[in-house]
Amino acid sequence: MPSRRDTIADDLRHRIVTGRLKPGDRLPSEAHLAAQYTVSTPTLRNALAVLQAEGLVEKVHGKGNFIRRPVRRITYVGGGRTPDRRIVDLAPLSVSVRTTKVRARGHLAALLKMPTGSPLTEILCLGHEGEGPHSLARIYVPCDLAPAAALRESLPYEEIMTGLMELRPPPAEVREEISVRLPTSEEASTLRISSALAVLAITRQTADVAGRVVEAALLVLPGDRADAVFTAHHMIDERPAKA
Amino acid sequence: MPSRRDTIADDLRHRIVTGRLKPGDRLPSEAHLAAQYTVSTPTLRNALAVLQAEGLVEKVHGKGNFIRRPVRRITYVGGGRTPDRRIVDLAPLSVSVRTTKVRARGHLAALLKMPTGSPLTEILCLGHEGEGPHSLARIYVPCDLAPAAALRESLPYEEIMTGLMELRPPPAEVREEISVRLPTSEEASTLRISSALAVLAITRQTADVAGRVVEAALLVLPGDRADAVFTAHHMIDERPAKA
DNA sequence: CAGTGGTCTAGACCACGCG
DNA sequence: GCGTGGTCTAGACCACTGT
Fold it and tell me: pLDDT, tens digit, for every residue of A131-145?
């Protein structure tokens, strides 16, 4: 037996995908909807929470519930094969950047395989699309690898990235670990998402041929509009017949 | 001002991580806890929902709330470079398998790049660890590529997989798309997770050298205990200096 | 059967956005 | 100030698990 919450969510979802409710439209107030469906407000809010988690509805405190525009999904392209492409995909519109110097500690030190306290350059990127922010990246580079140019604050994003690409040793291995978690309250407010909306968290570790970690990145993408794509090519696949 | 829900969640979390509440322990009943914290039961349940989403607490209907054992995280190893490893990681303990014949339609047909109605072998894998299920995989192979052996039902999982590995053309390209979403109600009950817990959904597409899709897989992993790891090696990286 | 969580009600009060 | 969503209350009733 489907719960009332799901019944209502299904009905509203149907109205949205069939176009009877259009992107940008404001839904009736929650009290109004609750009356229409003859449920209590918490029940109706639960139904809206379902649609919110699906990315179909956006709640704005004090204004109402709105049908989300079909959001261009953010696609993170992994594998580092064509670094430029990844950046472009991550930053379809604009990116604000802030670079600071920090010191490695805890998890970060382990990620970079550096002793605690090592100096790092932190590059904090906030991707924007349209009105709102939509992606968050924290990139860490050992200070001795970050050229002075990359350290200047308020450089255009593109230049910082191409600067990073020209770092000394060519990256030889990229390891990306993907997990799902709830955003920290900081991340939720930065990305303007509900703290109940899971995010795609990508931890990237780039090493050179000697195995030295030349870059670590912590990426956070809203789970309702982000994908990650990885493509692996097996040039020569000589299968040892089950071995 | 932190909400009461978060205050309670923080307090319980602290009790758990400091070991005052140990894995396997049953929490007092929700009514009891609500009385202790002098909040209503819905509020207390919201606090538990936070901990549940973090994977610290597991609710069991009719029995109570339990501190989760530190769960061995499921690691999906992508890239297909060493297929055996992926399988092992996905199936640390046991996997139950069911194969059926279905016909391609909609999204699935597009994924396999086959016309709607094409015959497929569906291999439904349910990974178990300890008591409960923990991963769900639906693997689709065009019927003309699936050897008769793989079609027999109730073959051991290992044999089916090695059978699959020996399919005709060596896989040349693996494309994996990762997204976060809420489980369908089917998936939630199969995996025994709350329908509010986001899952890691991996869509895998394996093609041979000719570009023909030889396998498509839909994997669903509980977001609170799953990671995916991708490692890319750049054998020779001749960077064309920005070009 | 008793005890547990699952769902829901019908309100209350507060915080935010806008005229 | 008004309407909106955000949070919370103090219950009710149902479904599941054990004895």
Answer: 667 888 998 988 877
